[in-house]
Amino acid sequence: MMEKLDSLRILTLAENTAPFGGSLLGQHGLSFLIEGKSEQATLQVIMDVGQDYDALCNNMEKLNVDVGQIDAVVLSHCHYDHTSGVAALLTQTKKRGVPVIAHPHIFRAHFINTPVLRHVGIMEGNNMQSLVAAGGQPFLTRDPLPLMPGLTTTGEVPRITSFEESVLKVFTINEGNVFRDSMPDDISLVACIKGRGLVVITGCSHAGIINIIKQAFSLYPGEELHVVIGGLHLEGAGSERITKTVEELCSFRPDLVSAGHCTGFDAQVAFYNVLGDRFVPLSAGAEFIISK
Ligand SMILES: [Fe+2]
Ligand SMILES: [Fe+2]
After folding, report:
1. Residues with Cβ within 5 Å of ion ligand 1?
2. Minimal CB count within 10 Å: which of 27, 92, 103, 279?
3. What digits encode the pLDDT tens for the residues 25-34?
């Protein structure tokens, strides 16, 4: 898998924060427009759609995003704050057969019990049937799925590290029985850019950001880590977990980490203390253009 992109553009369509004084809206959720370019092809993908479709639409309009140009949708995991509105988005493309790329377990029952028991996975209006009716074509796979040469999903991420157990206590149901949910559906995107290296784009990193980066290295052996963008879900993590994560991620010497959404203030500060201006808090409208 050594083909590379000439350039990658990442535009943040939804995030928990929005810049001061602008017309963009924040929401508890995450969404990116990702545009890969090589000599042969250009591909526009939306990864995740947040949970407030009106706020997402506002930002897409203000950021001049033409929904009709989208080639595929990637859902990083089942959480409602990443997937609510995906049927509406597919309808708005006015296309049929738009690939919706996700893990095969993404539509499972997925519950949290704090402060009260409730479903936090994909909501009814965005289930498999709704996505197909809206013009989507589900591409469900555990394996890495190349979207174009130099841009791939991670597929299911092997849990290798000793310190990245999920911060979230979540549950699933199988034949009426309740089980702790390990979130096998957590996938990310990896791009390999000519002359730059790897760009890792995450939803919430429920698989653990170090596990995700190691999966990126195994997909592109010999490549260096260039950029990490997305949610790192260290909100609520203990200081030991945050310290180990920051140490190990920074040992890969990334040129930029832009983390927000569920990363948490403590982890953002910890990254800033090590990386200085190579760390940027993520917010709606944040744009990253990476080229050779
Ligand atoms: Fe999230
Ligand atoms: Fe999440």
Report:
1. 79, 81, 204, 262
2. 92
3. 999 999 999 9
